[in-house]
């Protein structure tokens, strides 16, 4: 092969000195009886001012390697081999005092969930000032002035005042930016970003991304950017390293990696977004919809959350409901399932009005409307075996017992492509994330429903696994003529599977119609913003979008 | 296949148990054996007067005789049966009531929760020993009322724990799924919630057993617990306490029996909690 070694190419390209060198890093995790290796000899070089993207599925070792770059191993893990040199200091053999002097001062870390990482009992400014004051970089008063300056650069509202709030008084996207500002407090040489935008809405993500990129460039900080989202990493990183199960697959500068991935695994990651379902014929104009949401309003206590929401879902069709968190997508699902009685309006099932509360609905109505949850971890009882998880709804709804029930459970497992003999006696904890989600689907199918609500069913899964789930749902829809309501904030998923799209914002439907109509201009302004905020694989995308926004608002 | 694995993993769990837990389990096993086989190993009957009062230790009466001339060793052996048996019954009762109502309160919420919780608050606001003494003087001191009254007072603590644990479980999606499926309250409690709340409740069972056990002994010592002539460790300490002034340690033996079981149970509970929390080392 004539392809040049990417590492040789980049060393030639950039003459700057290496800031962080990791060689042959191995990390072990404790198992029941001993230690097993989870990172198998990874090399990594990072120069000053450079951003390296680490991507891979869950379990690839991205976060573990990111933490190891600070000389740290999580509880239950240990760094068992290799060298980690930060600016000439060997972190593995350095004393804890040496490492502590580096952390926060020269190496900083931004966690995935800022909401969970800030101490809720202290104001943002106290947490900001802690590291610089402790390391003797600046005094408290200077730190407060500096915080306001960095908050302004991170484009936080009221930069002079926001630091004096407590974490719960600030939104998720703002917290994530405040945490990035906090990481910059001592002007470190290296920041490790561990999925900093994964939990955010697309419209918020774009702001956090541009703020991070801005500040990292301004202070010439090197960064390791960990994510599983290829489009995001394409915007941020100079180089990308792909990891699989604790091993490096390949590494190359961003543009080359996107244009011409060498390894089969990388190509498969890139190809995920290619799944598009064949379009379904439109329903007959007079057909009665399976589910009809009619002018529904709802409130939590005195706070209105839904206002005049109407849409229909026809047999065999998929309606995607999109919008940011807080837009009322999940609340609509709660009204349909009867968990939250609407304050006005009604839900019809096959033309018949459903009782507002699920407790007042007949069992047959409950059977026909099923739900699949976002997190299969909390949706399956961890103490029940698959036999019972699937067997009970079969028994309850279809009255099958003994051998007939067992046969039906096995048939369900086959429908979701899991071998009954291997899986029927397992507990949910003994399954992978994708398998758990399949069991969630089978539990919904056990009721032989007409309509299934899929609440962000793929957002907690790796892309390859999510693709498998989408294909499965598609096949089941064709075979069983199911109607789906697909709640999601991922526009790529909507493009792949939806027949119709309902766009929601702040409890209202802002636009609805067939997918092609909604996704073709002219858009409602909010739909346009939503569509424009979805990251694309092109590395120049973020720059272009920001430039376009600046032009729009001079 | 599962059947052959289960005893194996239990045996492995036992082997990995620390010394304290093994000690605790040995103590519990010993007490259970003594309680079950009391008539076989006791040299004399429970209430049989065998000789003069306060006889010293001898080959005939290994631990001497008590204030009425009954054999001390026999009474200690029968005491295991009475004191431990009543304590187990009381704890089981407290758990059945407390756990069921606690889970129900968490599951239903709203006024059911308010009513039960405030009621429990009121019961917990009264110092428990004084409350038990008061109720015993009102209802009399039969074994049944001792069991019921201690169970009632202690079930409030179980209620609190069961409710707190269940609050974290009822917000899970699988409970929502079960509700949407139309599952009844009984099934929700027994099949969906209880299996997930079992570990902390089991640990609390051990601790609660110690408290109940001590409460029975304390009440007996005060004269309101298990009544004579039934052999009971608490009242045995009281009846023979005067011997201590003569340098005889015999009354300390039932007291030690109480202390030993309490410590043994606590060792086992510590170990179970440690395992349930998933902590290593």
From TrEMBL, chain A:
CDD domains: ABC_NikE_OppD_transporters
One Pfam family in the UniProt entry: oligo_HPY
Subcellular location, record wording: Cell inner membrane
Cross-referenced SUPFAM superfamilies: P-loop containing nucleoside triphosphate hydrolases
A single GO molecular function term of this UniProt record: ATP binding
Keyword Electron transport: no
Residue ranges of every copy of the ABC transporter domain listed in the record: 20-270, 291-531
Cross-referenced PANTHER family: DIPEPTIDE TRANSPORT ATP-BINDING PROTEIN DPPD, OLIGOPEPTIDE TRANSPORT ATP-BINDING PROTEIN APPD
Protein name (Swiss-Prot/TrEMBL): ABC transporter ATP-binding protein
Automatic annotation (TrEMBL), chain B:
PROSITE patterns from the UniProt entry: ABC_TM1
Residues that span the membrane, as ranges: 26-45, 84-109, 129-153, 205-226, 252-273
Domain of life per record: Bacteria
Protein topology in the membrane: Multi-pass membrane protein
Keyword Transport recorded: yes
Record protein name field: ABC transporter permease
Residue span(s) of domain ABC transmembrane type-1: 80-273
Compartments it resides in: Cell membrane
SUPFAM superfamilies assigned to the protein according to its UniProt record, in alphabetical order: MetI-like (SSF161098)
Species this protein is from: Paralimibaculum aggregatum
Family: Belongs to the binding-protein-dependent transport system permease family.
């Amino acid at each position: 092969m004539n392809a040049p070694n990417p590492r040789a190419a980049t060393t030639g390209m950039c003459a700057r000195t290496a800031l962080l060198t990791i060689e042959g890093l191995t990390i072990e995790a404790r198992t029941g009886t001993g230690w097993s290796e989870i990172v198998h000899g990874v090399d990594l070089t990072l120069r000053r001012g450079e951003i390296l993207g680490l991507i891979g599925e869950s379990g690839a070792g991205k976060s573990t390697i990111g933490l190891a770059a600070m000389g740290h191993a999580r509880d239950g893990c240990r760094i068992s081999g290799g060298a980690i040199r930060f600016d000439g200091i060997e972190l593995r053999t350095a004393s804890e005092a040496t490492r502590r002097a580096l952390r926060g001062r020269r190496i900083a870390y931004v966690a995935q969930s800022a909401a969970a990482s800030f101490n809720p009992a202290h104001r943002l400014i106290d947490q900001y000032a802690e590291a610089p004051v402790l390391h003797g970089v600046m005094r408290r008063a200077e730190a407060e002035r500096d915080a306001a300056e960095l908050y302004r650069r991170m484009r936080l509202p009221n930069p002079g005042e926001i630091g004096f709030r407590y974490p719960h008084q600030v939104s998720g996207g703002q917290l994530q930016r405040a945490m990035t500002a906090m990481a910059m407090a001592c002007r470190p040489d290296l920041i490790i970003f561990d999925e900093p935008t994964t939990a955010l809405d697309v419209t918020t993500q774009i702001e956090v991304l541009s703020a991070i990129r801005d500040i990292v460039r301004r202070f010439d900080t090197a960064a390791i950017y960990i994510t599983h989202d290829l489009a995001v990493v394409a915007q941020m990183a100079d180089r990308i390293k792909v990891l699989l199960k604790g091993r490096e697959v390949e590494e190359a500068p961003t543009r080359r990696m996107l244009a011409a991935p060498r390894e089969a695994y990388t190509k498969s990651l890139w190809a995920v977004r290619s799944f598009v379902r064949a379009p379904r014929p439109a329903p007959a104009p007079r057909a009665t919809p399976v589910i009809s949401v009619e002018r529904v309003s709802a409130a939590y206590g005195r706070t209105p959350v839904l206002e005049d929401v109407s849409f229909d879902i026809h047999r065999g069709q998929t309606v995607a409901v999109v919008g940011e968190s807080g837009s009322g997508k999940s609340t609509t699902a709660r009204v349909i399932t009867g968990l939250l009685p609407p304050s006005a309006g009604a839900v019809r099932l096959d033309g018949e009005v459903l009782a507002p509360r699920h407790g007042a609905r007949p069992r047959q109505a409950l059977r026909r409307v099923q739900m699949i949850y976002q997190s299969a971890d909390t949706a399956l009882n961890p103490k029940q075996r698959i036999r019972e998880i699937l067997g009970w709804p079969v028994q309850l709804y279809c009255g099958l017992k003994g051998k007939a029930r067992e046969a039906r459970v096995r048939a369900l497992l086959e429908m979701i492509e899991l071998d009954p003999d291997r899986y029927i006696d397992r507990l949910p904890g003994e399954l992978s994330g994708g398998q758990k989600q399949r069991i969630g689907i089978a539990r919904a199918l056990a009721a032989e429903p007409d309509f299934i609500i899929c609440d962000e069913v793929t957002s907690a899964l790796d892309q390859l696994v999510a693709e498998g789930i989408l294909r499965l749902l598609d096949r089941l829809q064709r075979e069983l003529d199911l109607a789906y309501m697909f709640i999601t904030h991922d526009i790529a998923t909507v493009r792949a599977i939806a027949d119709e799209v309902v766009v929601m914002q702040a409890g209202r439907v802002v636009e609805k119609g067939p997918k092609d109509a909604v996704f073709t201009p002219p858009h409602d302004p909010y739909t346009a913003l939503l569509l424009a905020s979805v990251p694309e694989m092109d590395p120049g995308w973020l720059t272009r979008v920001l430039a376009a926004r600046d032009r729009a608002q001079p | 296949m599962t059947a052959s694995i289960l005893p194996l993993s239990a045996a492995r769990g036992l082997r990995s148990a620390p010394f304290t837990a093994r000690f605790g389990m040995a103590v519990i096993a010993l007490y259970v054996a003594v309680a079950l086989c009391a008539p076989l190993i006791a040299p004399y009957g429970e209430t049989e007067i065998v000789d003069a009062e306060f006889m010293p230790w001898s080959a005939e009466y290994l631990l001497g005789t008590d204030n009425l001339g009954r054999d001390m060793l026999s009474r200690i052996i029968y005491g295991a049966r009475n004191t431990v048996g009543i304590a187990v019954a009381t704890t089981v009762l407290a758990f059945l009531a407390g756990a069921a109502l606690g889970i129900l309160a968490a599951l239903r919420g709203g006024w059911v929760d308010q009513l039960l919780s405030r009621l429990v608050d009121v019961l917990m606001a009264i110092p428990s020993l004084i409350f038990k003494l008061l109720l015993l003087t009102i209802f009399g001191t039969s074994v049944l009322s001792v069991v019921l009254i201690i169970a009632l007072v202690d079930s409030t603590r179980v209620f609190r724990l069961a409710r707190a644990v269940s609050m974290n479980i009822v917000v899970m999606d699988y409970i929502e799924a079960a509700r949407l499926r139309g599952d009844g309250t009984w099934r929700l409690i027994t099949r969906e919630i209880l299996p997930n709340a079992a570990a902390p409740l089991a640990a609390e069972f051990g601790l609660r057993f110690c408290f109940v056990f001590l409460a029975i002994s304390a009440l007996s010592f005060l004269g309101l617990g298990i009544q004579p002539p039934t052999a009971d460790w608490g009242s045995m300490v009281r009846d023979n306490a005067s011997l201590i002034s003569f340098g005889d340690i015999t009354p300390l033996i039932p007291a030690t029996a109480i202390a030993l079981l309490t410590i043994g149970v606590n060792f086992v509970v510590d170990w179970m909690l440690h395992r349930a929390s998933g902590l290593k080392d």
